[in-house]
Design a protein that fits this description.
Structural class: alpha/beta
Helix content: 55-70%
Number of helices: 31
Distance between the termini: 5 Å
Largest sheet: 8 strands, mixed
């Protein structure tokens, strides 16, 4: 028989919680590092990497159990695995951080996955040896992850990225120390003690944090960063300021030989300018830039700038005669960088005409009754979702509902100005603007009179528009305004792409003349240029099909299932239960991603949404797991009422979000956060009951031998669930994703009797004969 150790003590559960806390914080740490190094789709993969690594670990542990007949001390095995987990965490972080950039970027995924392989082995060993206590193990695991989610962002904000990383590794080695002591592993105990002390010593050595931060070798050698692009263009550039917090890494880059402007870079990719200003001279000639046009139309304007960044747009507004500027910036570190370099930029954020506001621009305007002459958004991209590990991130700044908010905050003669990156941005922003005008009762024949398009044309194989300006007017442009625009664009040699009274027909005039409809023109385009909405908030996705990133994830899951699990499922005659645990993994992740997407718009900041959603869901699921074995929850046919309660609660939540969106916005922030915590906790409470119950139920059928397979395939299909969730949101909407998650839990409820359908005696007999011949599962 299997050799078992049933001493699942409070100390062991506490150790599990610490390990789970360390793992989740490490995942956030690596996602922060990847956000600065790699293209967005690799950042998205970090969540999938963690899950895939743990699935591989479960198979490794399964093979080990079969190979040695489980004649080992489980506690000793677990002590070693936790130590290996800690060592691999430190090693993989050191390689990713200190080794020069690896051109084969996918190798970073493999390096980051190594600690999770040991984690998968560890948790597989726990669930296999203590299956009847799976509710307590899952409770400790999820509570640890939930607490890590709640604390990690705050830690990054308040003590900084590098000090937070050192604290995480102290926690990792203390976790390893707890298990190595309990396992009696003396060598690992000594090594873990030394490493914990070493990480603590790094915290007290003067300037060690600055040394580590400045020697981020892979970042400094990555070809994907703004720094690298400047160097590749032949310009000498160096980082002169860095602030790395819970939102992103913020650098200020100085170019040698040209100090008229410095680049404020977020996560090495999203850039904004900080202009040299002495209070008199316009060193950057801002008054001749293409986006100066609104200040020629109204020289005494009240202005709101969303995404004020390094202060370039704020300075331009001041030079343009604005009497008041509300500068709204979501990245606190960017604002601090501008203030810290006040002697360079003329203390632009301390100017008496400037009111700096840190937060989400859309949310601030939604709750404001203030009206503006000019609302200005220039190439606004938030990097927080990327930093949290979600690719093709939802962007609620440019949705149709957001543009309606900006439109509502304009004065009668106000102007809403967007500056995009390229043709695609311009097309989607233009279509969104026209749709908002239509929904505000503006007849099609007037659309041509209330939208202006301009840009810098670059001829090539196809004409590209750089820095396109889309300017929506609250009422038709006057003849004087038209003449002013014409004169400025002619003088500065920019191109007018559409202006009221123009002689050249374009697609806006075609719509106004009734020759075409907006819908027909969007349908003909080979790109997705439909307006994004709060239900489908993927502004920067221009592909009409499913993005390649998500196809890759789904193909990877299918391939891994075929390679690692298909044969095992057939050999053990557990194909149906394999489907069940796969569906359970998909369902949990679909609901989690949908909640994050919903909360991003309701809680006004992507970081707040991430922390509130993940921590509430995981802690709720952990508490639900603890109570999952209650007799009142289990029906006679083996169905668990937690699944049907999860179905009902998720469905009810989706209905609330569907019909209460308009007034949720105006609830005070504190009450919204509390309501979100309660709603997500309740859903998590029911969702968390199903997995531990299913593990312990499987043990009743054929013992512990198949638990590693179920644990691994559940994790693998959680990886698929994250991709499926985003695909559903893109095609059907975020609420539809939540409803899909609800349906999955309904199907799980109906599918639960599968757990009690034992394999035929003939199949079991064949498996036992095969196992005995190969020496597996020896008695």
């Amino acid at each position: 028989m299997f050799k078992k150790n049933r001493d699942l003590s409070i100390g062991t559960l506490g150790g599990i919680t610490l390990i789970s806390t360390s793992l989740f914080m490490y995942e956030i740490t690596i996602s922060r590092v990847f956000a600065t190094l790699l293209p967005y789709h690799y950042v998205f993969m970090i969540l999938s990497t963690a899950i895939l690594g743990m699935s591989i670990g479960s198979i490794v542990e399964f093979k080990k159990i079969k190979a040695i007949g489980y004649k080992i001390n489980p506690l000793g095995e677990q002590g070693k695995l936790v130590s290996y987990l800690a060592y691999s965490m430190l090693t993989s972080f050191a390689v990713i951080y200190f080794v020069p950039f690896i051109k084969l970027s996918f190798l970073y995924i493999g390096i980051a996955a190594i600690p999770y392989i040991f984690a998968g082995q560890f948790f597989t060993s726990l669930f296999t040896n203590y299956a009847e206590y799976s509710n307590k193990i899952y409770f400790a695991d999820l509570i640890g992850a939930g607490v890590a989610s709640a604390l990690s962002i705050g830690i990054f904000y308040f003590i900084g990225f590098i000090p937070a990383v050192k604290l995480i590794f102290v926690t990792v080695f203390i976790s390893a120390l707890v298990f190595s002591i309990r396992a009696g592993e003396k060598n690992h105990t000594y090594l873990n003690s030394l490493l914990a002390l070493f990480m603590l010593s790094l915290s007290v050595i003067p300037n060690m944090g600055n040394f580590i931060e400045k020697n981020f070798v892979s970042y400094l050698t990555s070809p994907y960063t703004s720094l690298a692009r400047f160097k590749n263009s032949g310009a000498e550039a160096k980082i002169i300021y860095t602030n790395w917090d819970g939102f992103a890494r913020t650098d200020v880059i100085k170019r040698e030989g040209d100090d008229s402007a410095r680049i404020v870079s977020t996560n090495g990719a999203a850039n904004t300018l900080m202009i040299k200003y002495d209070g008199v001279n316009d060193f950057y000639n801002l008054s001749s830039q293409i986006d100066y046009i609104p200040y020629l139309l109204n020289e005494n304007a009240e202005v709101a700038i969303i995404g004020s960044g390094g202060g370039r747009d704020v300075l331009q507004a001041i030079l343009g005669g604005a009497k008041r500027v509300d500068a709204i910036e979501i990245n606190r570190s960017t604002v601090q960088a501008v203030k810290d370099m006040g002697s360079y930029n003329g203390n632009i954020y301390e100017n008496p005409k400037v009111n700096v506001m840190v937060g989400d621009g859309r949310s601030i305007l939604e709750k404001s009754n203030k009206k503006y002459d000019t609302i200005f958004l220039s190439m606004v991209m938030t990097g927080a979702a990327q930093a949290n590990g979600y690719a093709l991130a939802e962007n609620y700044i440019y949705t149709k509902e957001a543009v309606q908010t900006y439109y509502d905050n304009l004065k009668p003669n106000g102007k809403l100005i967007f500056v995009g990156h390229n043709n695609m941005d311009m097309a989607k922003l233009t279509n969104t603007s026209m749709k908002v005008l239509q929904e505000n009762g503006i007849p099609n024949k007037l659309l041509k009179d209330q939208i202006f398009l301009g840009g810098e044309l670059h001829e090539g194989q196809e004409t590209m528009v750089h820095s396109p300006v889309v300017m929506l007017a609250k009422r038709p442009y006057s003849q004087e305004e038209i003449e002013t625009i014409n004169h400025f664009f002619t003088e500065q040699k920019y191109s007018i792409l559409h202006l009221s009274g123009g002689v050249q027909e374009d697609y806006i005039t075609s719509i106004s003349a009734g020759k075409a409809t907006l819908e027909s023109l969007m349908k003909k385009s080979k790109y997705d240029i439909k307006p994004s909405s709060d239900e489908k908030p993927f502004f920067y996705n221009f592909h009409k099909g499913i993005p390649v990133t998500f196809i890759f994830v789904l193909l990877s899951v299918y391939s891994c299932r075929s390679i690692f699990f298909k044969k095992l499922l057939y050999e053990q005659n557990i194909k149906k239960r394999g489907h069940y645990f796969s569906l359970l993994g998909v369902g949990f992740m679909v609901v989690e991603v949908a909640f994050i997407q919903k909360m991003t718009v309701y809680l006004e900041h992507p970081t707040t949404a991430f922390v509130v959603t993940i921590s509430s869901l995981l802690i709720g699921a952990g508490v639900g797991s603890f109570f999952s074995h209650g007799a009142w929850l289990i029906e006679k046919d083996g169905k668990h009422r937690g699944a049907i309660l999860a179905f009902m609660s998720i469905l009810a939540t989706g209905i609330i979000f569907k019909f209460a969106s308009d007034w949720i916005v105006f609830i005070p922030m504190g009450k919204k956060v509390l309501a979100a915590i309660l709603i997500i906790f309740v859903n998590g409470f029911f969702m968390g009951m199903i997995f531990p119950y299913s593990i312990s139920s499987s043990k009743k059928i054929d013992g512990e031998k198949n638990i590693p397979i179920f644990y691994g395939i559940n994790g693998l299909f959680s990886m698929a669930g994250s991709a499926i969730a985003v695909i559903i949101s893109m095609k059907l909407g975020v609420t539809a994703t939540l409803f899909a998650g609800s349906i999955i839990y309904g199907v799980i409820y109906m599918f639960m009797p599968v757990l009690f359908q034992e394999s035929s005696s003939l199949s079991l007999q064949k498996n036992r004969i095969k196992s005995s011949k190969s020496g597996y599962f020896q008695k």
